[in-house]
Specification:
By secondary structure, the protein is mostly helical. Helices cover 67% and strands 0% of the residues.
């Protein structure tokens, strides 16, 4: 009975917080309010963990609805920040935000969440890797900091840490972070049951990782996006072996790099011709 009363109080607090909080900047998604964690903590009356869970459930529900409506949900990082500020040991938001956020996403609201994850769960190298990848490939690359985040695993006594993770800090230092490692991490996340309903996030994440810029395009008609989708779905549904999917996706990355190299060569050649023409005229 006491537990039920606590849940009722928590729900009332969340409802009040949403009612009195200031609205977020307008987007094309029907999101209402996100109060400050300090305000919610003050009125939570010792039920921070319960309130954090309620906010997180609300965020996941609206993220799922965004996939059905085709609209963008831009607040997952903000919801995770609120939830983990209330309960820093709340593991699920850390893992989820790290898993679904594209490595080059322009919105950096997830940075504080992943930073907290690395601090609260220092033994979990996967959470730290999410943060390091964002630091290295985000809108404001900081490869030195990314290397520092992963350096602690080099001489960790944990025998379950893979060898390539122990030395991965060097890749960040040398600015040679390989697509292979990031792709392997994403494909491992795809196979997690907790992400089953949010698979679309991984289509986008892999598309950006492989260098395809599809902003503003009709994804239903884009052959590259549909190929990535088919490969990921085939692997997740057990129809295509993960090794085949991994190899096919890396081949798409190589093809994209070759296309970019050709385009850059054409641009350089055109610039040379123009320069020569100007020189002859002069």
């Amino acid at each position: 009975m006491r537990f039920l009363a606590a849940i009722i109080v928590a729900i009332a607090i969340v409802a009040a917080a949403f009612h009195f909080a200031k609205p977020l900047p307008g987007t094309n998604f029907d999101e209402s309010f996100l109060p400050k964690a300090s305000t919610v903590h003050y009125v939570a009356a010792g039920h921070d963990a319960s309130v954090a869970g309620l906010f997180w459930i609300k965020g996941l529900t609206e993220l799922g609805e965004s996939y059905l409506t085709g609209r963008e949900y831009a607040y997952l990082g903000h919801v995770a920040e609120l939830s983990t500020s209330l309960d820093s040991l709340f593991y699920t938001p850390y893992y989820f935000v790290g898993g679904v956020t594209p490595v080059d996403a322009p919105d950096t609201s997830d940075f504080s969440v992943l930073r907290r994850a690395s601090r609260v769960y220092p033994e979990n190298w996967r959470l730290s890797l999410y943060y390091a990848l964002r630091l290295a490939r985000g809108p404001y690359p900081n490869r030195t900091e990314a290397a520092n985040v992963m350096r602690k695993y080099f001489d960790s006594p944990d025998t379950t840490i893979p060898d390539h993770i122990r030395t991965i800090y060097r890749s960040f230092e040398l600015d040679s972070m390989q697509t292979e490692t990031a792709l392997e991490t994403i494909l491992n996340d795809v196979m997690q049951p907790r992400f089953k309903k949010f698979r679309k996030s991984f289509y986008t994440k892999i598309t950006k990782l492989l260098g395809y810029k599809l902003f503003g395009e009709d994804l239903e008609k884009n052959e590259d996006y549909q190929k990535i989708k088919a490969l990921v779905d085939g692997m997740a549904d057990g129809k295509i072996h993960p090794a085949v999917v991994y190899r096919e996706l890396l081949a798409m990355k190589k093809l994209q790099d070759e296309k970019k190299a050709v385009e850059e060569a054409k641009t350089a050649a055109g610039s040379t011709v123009i320069a020569d023409s100007v020189a002859l005229k002069n």
